[in-house]
Design goal:
The structure holds two protein chains of two kinds.
Chain A: H1 3-32, E1 34-38, H2 40-44, E2 54-60, E3 66-67, E4 73-79, E5 84-90, E6 102-109, E7 115-121, H3 131-153
Chain B: H1 2-30, H2 33-36, H3 39-62, H4 69-74, H5 81-86, H6 92-113, H7 119-143, H8 167-196, H9 201-232, H10 243-268, H11 272-295, H12 308-332, H13 347-377, E1 383-385, H14 387-407, H15 418-440, H16 448-474, H17 481-486, H18 490-516, E2 518-524, E3 529-532, E4 535-546, E5 550-561, E6 564-569, E7 572-576, E8 582-585, E9 587-589, E10 594-605, E11 608-617, H19 619-637, H20 640-656
Antiparallel strand pairs in B: 2-11, 3-4, 4-5, 5-6, 5-7, 7-8, 9-10, 10-11
Helix pairs in contact in B: 1-3, 1-7, 3-6, 6-7, 6-8, 7-8, 7-12, 8-9, 8-11, 9-10, 9-19, 9-20, 10-11, 10-13, 11-12, 13-14, 14-16, 15-16, 16-18, 18-19
The chains are: A alpha+beta, B alpha+beta.
Chain lengths: 155, 663
């Protein structure tokens, strides 16, 4: 091999090795930063990880929003029309947060089953429903319909 | 009647695009000069009809013609006129109309300013742009007609989303679209070159200024978007790694790689295949961005209600564009000649490194953006990729890139003597390492990341100054600065200089604001004072204040420091009358060294409010850096050498293809 070609080969090998290492690091970090989405039904069924942060979404239950003593902590329930989970959040809620609205919260489950959120997202557009929330609502609804149908058949 | 005129103009524009896409292109192959000559008038025709259509829609908004469904949904008699105009691109149909209108403007720009190109090259470029216009015009006409009527017409319109009633957002989409769509010019040049089988340094010289201008618009668009998010969303963030932001960031990264790779192709004739591939990539990512924004497949803060079927159309179009162009590339690439060789230590190698890093970042951002879609498609669960991941990726690769960025401009093309390079870099290296360590020590900054940022930005500044000194010394001292600036190639160099300086500002801004910003969410009663970062914030309660189309709760906050008043801020909570949507309008005291930012949360009874108080040091440097980058790009694109060389090329090309048609 001519020296110039050899040099180029080394250069290419160096780049490939560098990119390889970078990709490996990136993928590793990627897996640690994934946030899974769980619906209230899944959380109630104990499917959500107890010690890892995740996202929880649903509709804010009407009449459930209460402010805890004097501070900035708010407590409210989210539902997928089947099961309900309580969320606690300290801070200022987004403008579009209101009862009946679909929201997604980031946070962790506390031992008493309350979801402690560090971020609550409500969307720009009130017609908009986060796709995850829409899907879980539909799932819960389908389940409800199936259960109702089963009941009708049984007796 | 007038809206129908707009609709009709759209149909005519589509007809023009159809002819433009086929006839001039065929003419260049069949050697029919009359067909080739049609390209320019057709580009003008398409532009005229689209301008007419666009004007009609603007008119419909201005006169509140609610018999047009799109106006009825997004317009309102109470809207101030400026927002009536910006409402044109406030939702899906209108923003697509803006997209094609801008595309036709770029097409006309190529027809006018590309007069220096060889006739057949220009015709092919215009034809390729016509093909893109066909895709978007049929999308517009068949799935999202902005001129659709509604009967009976409502008395009052549904109003533009209040969040978009803002000056920053009135100009952000047009800028961003100018960038997105501008990438189509680089794409069209690449496709035209592949079709013609002539891919050389001249091609790079032709497409370089176009690519630079598109990239400048994209940069400005992203900066505006970031600035808007900062002051309008009410929580002081300026970048969220949101899918839609990523959608604009990916073409920017690819475009940045392209701008640098084009430099190598122009100067040295190397990296040709790679450059073509980047041009295809940058435009494909622009289309992907459009798809992500318009289809609503991803959860995003930008996700306004939209329609999945339209997403399918864009996805198909995307596949045709990517598939078709890659196929063409695969067929033609083996014919592309190899460029000039270069040694291991040379500017080419460093620019190659820059390209590898930029493309790597593009791929990572793409992965993080599309992973939720893939996971969902494979049934692995519904995920989102955490904010920290993107940040850590940027923090990992940015320093490497900045390191290369300092060395590159000081390195010779083709071959560089390593010892000489080390001698040139020595001083800059010492300054930046010493300063970095000093800042990282507990005495000063006590933060390794601020130390790193200080080292990197000083490294950039020091190497830039070294480069300037060497350049001016070779040209006869500091006195020749102006002469050098005005001469051929001067603006390219000073453009690079300015843009790289912008990166230094950007790095410092980002690091300081993330490390040293102070933030407090507090419950405040009227008359109460809160201390934050050496400033006192006195809350003087909230009054009701009317606006043109909203009612506001207007807070009063006195900010003082050591007893002297610094600013009087009025954060607002607005409720817009039609959509009944609450909106936070932050009170900001902006400064070059720091921002003070106050926003209202919600009323807690007895006149108490939850309030958000921020102290953000150097946050403006982020956007200032971005604007410097854009200014540098613009300066480089205006270099006189492009015009001179184009004229020379044209004179040469005349001999190849006689205009008379007797060939």
């Amino acid at each position: 091999m001519r020296p110039a070609r050899k040099k180029r080969l080394y250069l290419i090998l160096l780049i490939v090795a560098g990119v390889g290492v970078a990709a490996a690091l990136a993928l590793n970090a990627f897996n640690q930063n994934l946030m899974f989405f769980y619906s209230p039904s899944e959380v109630s069924a104990g499917k959500a990880p107890p010690d890892h942060p995740f996202r929880l979404g649903g509709l804010v239950t009407k009449g459930s929003v209460t402010r805890l003593t004097n501070g900035l902590t708010t407590r409210f329930d989210v539902t997928d029309m089947d099961k309900t989970v309580s969320i606690e959040y300290t801070g200022i809620l987004p403008d579009l947060f209101r009862e009946g609205q679909g929201i997604v919260a980031h946070g962790k489950l506390r031992d008493d089953g309350v979801f402690v959120a560090d971020e609550v997202l409500a969307k720009h557009d009130e017609k908009y429903m986060p796709p995850e929330v829409a899907a879980s609502l539909k799932e819960a609804h389908d389940k409800g319909v199936a259960a109702a149908a089963a009941k009708e058949v049984k007796p | 009647m007038i809206p129908e005129l707009g609709h009709f103009a759209l149909i005519l524009a589509l007809c023009m695009a159809l002819v433009l896409a086929v006839v001039p292109l065929a003419g260049t192959f069949l050697r029919m000069p009359a067909w080739v000559a049609l390209a320019r008038p057709l580009a003008w025709g398409q532009f005229t009809f689209l301008a007419l259509a666009f004007g009609v829609l603007v008119h419909a908004f201005l006169v509140d013609d609610f018999s047009v469904l799109y106006v009825a949904n997004n317009g309102n008699t109470l809207l101030p006129n400026i927002y009536k105009v910006s409402a044109v691109w406030g939702a899906h149909e209108g923003s697509l109309l803006l997209w094609v209108f801008i595309l036709s403007s770029w097409t006309v720009a190529v027809a006018v300013f590309g007069r220096n190109l060889p006739e057949e090259v220009q015709a092919r470029v215009l034809s390729v742009m016509g093909m893109i216009a066909i895709g978007f015009l049929s999308f517009l006409l068949f799935t999202s007609n902005p001129f659709e009527r509604v009967f009976p017409a409502p008395v009052e319109g549904g109003e533009l989303n209040p969040l978009l009633q803002d000056f920053g957002l009135a100009i952000h989409p047009p800028m961003l679209y100018m960038g997105y769509v501008g990438m189509s010019v680089a794409f069209a040049f690449a496709i035209a070159a592949l079709l013609g089988g002539r891919l050389d340094a001249a091609w790079a010289r032709w497409s370089r200024p176009w690519t630079l201008v598109a990239w400048v618009f994209l940069t400005i668009g992203i900066v505006l978007g970031s600035w808007w998010a900062y002051y309008e969303l009410g929580w002081g963030g300026w970048w969220f790694w949101d899918p839609v932001e990523n959608a604009s960031f990916m073409p920017w990264l690819a475009g940045t790689a392209l701008v640098h790779s084009l430099a190598v192709t122009e100067k040295r004739g190397a990296f040709k295949r790679w450059t073509v591939l980047l041009a295809l990539l940058a435009f494909s990512l622009s289309l992907l961005g459009t798809f992500l924004v318009r289809s609503g497949v991803l959860t995003s803060v930008h996700a306004f209600a939209n329609d999945p079927e339209r997403g399918l159309f864009i996805l198909m179009f995307l596949m045709i564009v990517i598939g078709g162009s890659l196929l063409l590339y695969a067929v033609r690439a083996p014919d592309i000649s190899r460029g000039g060789g270069f040694a291991t230590v040379s500017r080419e190698t460093l620019l190659l490194g820059n390209n590898v890093l930029l493309v790597l970042m593009t791929v990572l951002v793409l992965m993080g953006t599309l992973a939720p879609l893939l996971y969902d498609a494979f049934g692995w669960g519904k995920i989102s990729v955490g904010f920290p991941w993107f940040n850590s990726m940027l923090v990992t690769f940015m320093p490497l890139m900045v390191l290369l960025m300092g060395i590159g401009p000081l390195t010779r093309w083709k071959q560089q003597e390593p010892a000489e390079l080390v001698r040139r870099l020595r001083l800059a290296l010492i300054i930046s390492v010493v300063a970095g360590v000093a800042v990282a020590l507990p005495l000063l900054g006590d933060s390794w990341s601020v130390g790193l940022a200080a080292a990197l930005s000083l490294w950039l500044v020091a190497t830039l100054l070294t480069g300037l000194k060497l350049r001016l010394r070779a040209r006869g001292g500091i006195g020749s600065l102006w002469q050098d600036f005005a001469g051929r190639g001067g603006r390219s160099y000073y453009g690079m200089w300015l843009a790289h300086l912008g990166v230094a500002f950007f790095i410092v801004g980002i690091t300081v604001v993330t490390q040293f910003d102070v933030e407090k969410d507090e419950r405040m009663s009227p008359g109460q004072t809160i201390e934050l970062a050496g400033y006192s914030f006195r809350f003087d309660g909230v009054q009701t204040a009317p606006g043109p189309n909203y009612k506001a709760q207007r807070g009063t906050v006195h900010v003082s420091r050591n007893g002297a008043e610094v600013a009087l801020l009025h954060p607002e909570k607005r409720v817009y009358q039609v959509q009944r949507k609450p909106m936070t309008e932050a009170g900001i005291d902006a400064g070059f060294m720091r921002d003070i930012y106050v926003s209202l949360g919600e009323p807690l009874g007895n006149g108490d409010w939850s309030m958000r108080l921020y102290y953000k040091p150097l946050v403006r440097w982020i956007w200032f850096g971005g604007l410097l980058i854009a200014a540098g790009g613009l300066l480089a694109a205006s270099d006189p050498r492009y015009r001179h060389l184009l004229q020379r090329q044209r004179a040469g090309a005349r001999d190849v293809l006689p205009a008379g048609g007797h060939a």
